[in-house]
Amino acid sequence: MPAVTLQYLEMLSPDDLRGKPQPMGLTIMEAQVKDYRFNRFLYQLVGEPWQWTDKLVHTDEQWQSYAEAKNLRTFVAYHRGSIAGYYELRQHPENNVEIAYFGLSPKFIGKGFGGYLLTHAIENAWCWGPTKRVWVYTCSLDHPNAIHNYQARGLQIYKTEERV
């Protein structure tokens, strides 16, 4: 397997956000009733094309501990009744909020939804408590436009690493 490049990005002020407008017909809702099975479904739906496999070996108990934790929030984008994408926000100590997972469903890639979904994620991260930093990481296995979307919204690379 070839080496994978990971890029970590951060935003240190909500003023750095360069948002995209909401596309017509796209709605985003928080999954306020937590159910680890839903998070597992979203992870598989969105992550399959990008080889998100690390959590596929997790037990139900591990999924439940992760997805139903108090420091995790899940938001789902819908278009015409179908799941267009999702993101998870995870609150860390020292008022850091991670965009833990973010992506579009395969049928919705290239429709112009990613910029607004990321805008929504960053806005919600800043509004969650006294947030001092929003961060995310992406890798060379993700969609080639992922890093461009993150940077276009105002996130800055602060670390790059290679993994074999």
Automatic annotation (TrEMBL):
* InterPro entries attached to this UniProt entry: Acyl_CoA_acyltransferase (IPR016181), GNAT_dom (IPR000182)
An example of a Pfam family matching this protein is Acetyltransf_1
Q: What is the lineage of its organism?
A: Bacteria, Pseudomonadati, Pseudomonadota, Gammaproteobacteria, Cellvibrionales
Species this protein is from? Teredinibacter turnerae (strain ATCC 39867 / T7901)
Alphabetically, the GO molecular function entries are:
acyltransferase activity, transferring groups other than amino-acyl groups
Q: What is this protein called?
A: Acetyltransferase, GNAT family
Question: Quick one: signal sequence residues?
Answer: none
**Domain named N-acetyltransferase: which ranges?**
26-164
Spell out the SUPFAM superfamilies in the cross-references.
Acyl-CoA N-acyltransferases (Nat)
